[in-house]
Amino acid sequence: MGAGMAGASLAAECAPHARVLLVEAEDTPGYHTTGRSAAFWEETYGGPGVFPLTMASGRYLREGGFLSPRGALNIGQASDRDKVEAFIEKFAALGATLHLQDRSALESRVPGLKPEWVVGAWEPGCADIDVAGLHQHYLATSKRTGTVMRVRARVERLEGEGGQWRLAWAGGEARAPIIANAAGAWADSLASLAGACPLGIQPLRRTIVQLRTDPAPADSLPLTLGINEDFYFKPQAGRLWLSPHDEIPDVAGDAAPEELDVAIAIDRFQHVVDWNIAALERRWAGLRSFSPDRLPVYGFDPVVEGLFWFAGQGGFGIQTAPAAARLGAQLLLGLPRDELTVEIDADAYAPARFLPDQS
Known about the structure:
This protein has helices at 5-14, 51-63, 81-92, 103-109, 131-144, 187-193, 259-270, 321-333; strands at 21-23, 40-41, 67-69, 72-77, 99-101, 117-123, 127-129, 148-150, 155-161, 164-169, 172-176, 179-181, 202-214, 223-226, 232-236, 239-243, 248-249, 276-290, 297-300, 307-311, 313-314. By secondary structure, it is an alpha+beta fold. It is globular, with a radius of gyration of 21 Å.
């Protein structure tokens, strides 16, 4: 249930081993979060708990031609030096590649950077992701191996009986022994429809704007992030994509940017570089759905039989899709681990971690 990156990738990994039906509520797959991503792969994004999924996915993405070199620069002011150094130490201990940068190094990477930005962490491995290409890859792989997809199929009823589920939507229905909840912002509501307890997966709105600037951003400009997680920007086809790094609680739906968040993004940008903003060309928002501990949820519901969770991927669902989908298929179908997933601790992402402590 759900044909964004999560559902499409999970279906593609399951289809060689099982009969798969992929149901999507919208007219086209990937309309919501997948189609609105800022599109980068960054080793540190999502934190230490997400790091194993990111690193395991990197080789698949590189070998598939879905990554283009970019580099990421996390920048701070003088008062942030300890935070930058701690950031480097924490992720270097996990195996990430980071380098401490002084003011001259920052200036060479971000021309026009204002003088108060004096320290940074350089991540050379950061890359742009061809999100549309990756999504289509999974949809095509899924179809080629037998998956059937239905669009405009918003699930309205989920009824489990005798080891079978009955799914019903306007104009259609299906039966299956296992249902996989890959519905993103709608994950909790679908779980409730199946009689399961919601896990507290919260949609958070993120805003992105496209600016025309003078000077125009160089193609070599890195993904530039504030070490305090209050902005990031990157070049895109001669324009600049900018976000205030917002996380505004929202409801599942067609997310739209708020004017205040757009204004905050631009104000923060103007405190980072001395570029002129020639035009605000586009603005959009997407929903990033987090579980209470901000880690994804992969595995069978601990109470409701035959309900598999594949949700809560936050803003890192695309960069972790290869390893997450492979792991998800292995957990769902009882398949053995392989090179892609052997070092991933699946228990860290199990839905059962949200059960009340019985001790």
